[in-house]
Amino acid sequence: MAYALWYWPSIPGRGEFVRLALEAAGVAYRDMAREQGAEALVRDLEARSGIRPFAPPYLVDGDFAIAQVAHILAWLADRHGFGAGQLERDLELITLQLTISDMVAEVHAVHHPISAALYYEDQKDAARKAAEHFRSERMPKFLGYFEDALGANEGPFVLGHKWSHVDTSLFQLVEGLRYMFPQRMEALERGHPRLLVCHEAVGKLDGIAAYRASDRCIPFNEDGIFRHYPELDGS
Amino acid sequence: MAYALWYWPSIPGRGEFVRLALEAAGVAYRDMAREQGAEALVRDLEARSGIRPFAPPYLVDGDFAIAQVAHILAWLADRHGFGAGQLERDLELITLQLTISDMVAEVHAVHHPISAALYYEDQKDAARKAAEHFRSERMPKFLGYFEDALGANEGPFVLGHKWSHVDTSLFQLVEGLRYMFPQRMEALERGHPRLLVCHEAVGKLDGIAAYRASDRCIPFNEDGIFRHYPELDGS
């Protein structure tokens, strides 16, 4: 039976990190809220009891639901063979994937530094200051870290010639950062050649190329995690 | 051989979530930066190459280093028997532990909404607004979520009568929130009876009681994750 993926239907958001791995691996899934709407997602989440997902995305397999992007991906990697297949290497991949999640959370906090419950327009001054620090300190630190990780093996992927869930997530991270900070990324990319090689190689995977040419893949927009507000960018 | 735990020596911080599980389980570890200082931590981290920890805390076992609190705890739980011992239940515990990590990150962002690289004093206005939203929206949402999770079994712990890494982390979360938001927690606690029962039961575990009576356990302070700034509290 196909997995049921539940995530907000109108943005790529955190759900896209799960989608990309499923698409790259050719694993069947139904994108439930794209079929049934956001209200169905809220109903499904609220109907769950006990130990349930705190927030989307979550993936359902029969009676079992699993949440948190890095956790979903580690579980899928084990089931579908897009991890390392060796314990310590798999644990290292999870460390990387969790660090990608941390960066994604910081990306969201750039445009919503005071509260996710307020509009961007109501926290624009704080966002501008947050963006300055994020661009100058956090982007080089995180991207340098991922660049080093890609140096652990002879690329194009983190594990070498076999793609893993970390590579599809790094692809999406680069896509999102290019959308949100085009000027800053143009300045930073030249210093991160392995990341660019990885990004290109992921884009050429059959499953990813087919997905991105389909209408299942929706563009970034200003309701999502990665938002292009020109006033938050700068080289 | 004892594990080597690396974390900033002068705060409980994120390291405390790892310490508490190790102490409750009676697993031997050396608290490296408490022995050798913060400079030794920076040197150790910088000397690591390839796929390495992004930030402390990390735990070293021989040649292998693992980072990210929830990830360290899931790995330790598997090795030392303080998980569920059944795959789907263990995955649920990890979902909970990752959600605790998310709340801890939000707690830090309350007093550092613009940038972790700026002083609190330089982002006090934004912090005050962030704290209002955190107290009114995020605290009830997160604590209600953990309260529900504790209802999945007949307490006092998430798994029922066996403690797990999630319980020791919930203990520390309650401790930290009481320190940071005493007024708000006083108002909220009565509505979360299972969380209080869990907190009390963890405090009575032999390993935890002994640890907390020792000088290995240091108090919260205003360099850490949980900081008491009276202007950020309110009922």
Automatic annotation (TrEMBL), chains A, B:
GO process annotations (BP): glutathione metabolic process
Matches recorded under Pfam families: GST_C_3
Lineage, broadest ranks: Bacteria, Pseudomonadati, Pseudomonadota, Alphaproteobacteria, Sphingomonadales
Domain of life: Bacteria
Protein name, entry field: Glutathione S-transferase
Domain (GST C-terminal): residue spans on this chain: 85-232
Protein keywords: Transferase
InterPro entries per record: Glutathione-S-Trfase_C-like, Glutathione-S-Trfase_C_sf, GST_C, GST_superfamily, Thioredoxin-like_sf
Organism: Pelagerythrobacter aerophilus
Signal peptide range in chain numbering: none
Molecular functions (GO terms): glutathione transferase activity
UniProt xrefs under CDD domains: GST_C_Sigma_like, GST_N_Sigma_like
SUPFAM superfamilies xrefs: GST C-terminal domain-like, Thioredoxin-like
